Structures are given as C-alpha cells and as structure tokens.
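Researcher: Last one for today. Full complex below.
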Amino acid sequence: MTPTTMTFFERFEADILAGKKTITLRDEAEKYYVPGSVVTVSTFEEGREFCRLEILSVEPILFDALTDYHAEQENMTLDELKEVIQAIYPGIQQLYLISYQLKGLLKVN
Ligand SMILES: CC(=O)Nc1ccn([C@@H]2O[C@H](CO)[C@@H](O)[C@H]2O)c(=O)n1
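Model: Here's the assembly. Have a good evening.
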C-alpha cells in the first residue's frame, strides 16, 4: 500500500516550509513512497501536521555517494548532512533519496 504520511524532526519544519529543504534521505523502511502521491507531513516529536508534500522521486543512494549537491538540497553542508544521517541511522550505507515539492499548508487550530 502507498504510504500517505511522513514525519520529520521539527527542527527541519521551517526549511521545508521555506522550500529550502527539498529532499530527505531515509532507510529502507521508507523506500515505499510513490512518485506522484501526496503525503501528509507531521513532526516526529509531537505528531503535529504542518504540510503536504508531493513525492517526486525515490531513488536508492549509498551514504558514500552523497555529494555537496545533495547537501545543498538539504540546506546543509555535506559534513553536517553526514553527521545528521549518522546520528539517525548509525552505520547506514543504503539510503533512499526522496525528493518532494510542497503542496500547501494545513490550517492551524
Ligand atoms: C522523523 C523520522 O521519522 N525520520 C527522519 C529521518 C530523516 N530526517 C531528515 O532527513 C534528512 C536526511 O536523513 C535529514 O535532513 C534528516 O534530518 C528527518 O527529519 N526525520
């Protein structure tokens, strides 16, 4: 089944909403997103919904193959990006690059 939700750490919310972070790198548990589908996005910490994203592509990529170009799309330096990934997924090699575009904001209460 096509996943319809995605979570992000809330420290990335502002960059996503500003269009400064246009990809995410996930492990194999999240490789099932489908290009063209729209997912509801919430914070990992509190489950607060903050936007919808259209999935544009999902591609396997190795940790060692990450470049400045990927980091730029995360609004980070490559060193920062690698540190973040190692903190979330210690020792990981196989990642999945998910690119997305903002579909619109959800109403707040
Ligand atoms: C909350 C949750 O379930 N998982 C993740 C996993 C990753 N990420 C971000 O994706 C990029 C590359 O990994 C970096 O910007 C990460 O911080 C995230 O926000 N949330």
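The chain has a mean pLDDT of 95. DSSP finds three helices and five strands in the chain.
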